[in-house]
Amino acid sequence: MAKKKTPTKKPVYTPEELEVFRSQLKQERLRIYRRIRSASVSLTASRQAGEESADIGSDDFIRETGLAIMSYDAEKLRLIDEALMNLEKGVYGVCLDCGKQIGKPRLEAKPYARLCITCREVRESNSGMPMDPDRARFLDRSSHM
């Protein structure tokens, strides 16, 4: 498994831009907490109602779907908390694989992004594995031409 690259570059974003990202991350975290809490209450009510329900298969499906959504949300919360910590450390917006700045449009769309677009695409095509270091050097050289 390839070693994660420690962010080496400082973000090029202004303090105002970083504050906007911080605010977006906190709003998203609050929205997810509320959704998890609501789903938890719904699952509890569904479980209690399921004891009396004749359609147990449907209740199981609803419960499993709710748990899957909660699991996805929990992972998203972890990424948001990591992004907030990176803001505090001064390394927010730095790609974990190549160490370069993640583009502002990507962070505006997904403020908890950990990878730049290039590295994300490489991981998707490599079944989640980071880019080969030789390929990264080639891409870095060709982007300056």
Please tell me about this protein's structure.
With 145 residues, this protein is mostly helical. The protein has one domain: Up-down Bundle (Four Helix Bundle (Hemerythrin (Met), subunit A)), CATH 1.20.120.910. 66% of the residues lie in helices and 0% in strands. It has five helices and no strands. Helix 1 packs antiparallel against helix 2. The two termini are 31 Å apart.
Blueprint of the fold:
Layout: H1 15-50, H2 56-89, H3 104-109, H4 117-125, H5 133-143
Shape: flat
CATH class (first level) name? Mainly Alpha
Domains (count): 1
Q: In terms of structural class, how would the helical and strand content be classed?
A: mainly alpha
What helical percentage do the residues reach? 55-70%
Largest sheet: none
Number of extended strands: 0
CATH superfamily membership: DksA, coiled-coil domain
- The number of helical runs is 5
Beta fraction of the residues? under 5%
Terminus-to-terminus distance: 31 Å
Question: What order do the helices and strands follow?
Answer: HHHHH
CATH architecture annotation: Up-down Bundle
Gyration radius, to the nearest Å?
20 Å
Low-confidence residue ranges: none
The fold-level CATH name is: Four Helix Bundle (Hemerythrin (Met), subunit A)
Chain-averaged pLDDT: 79
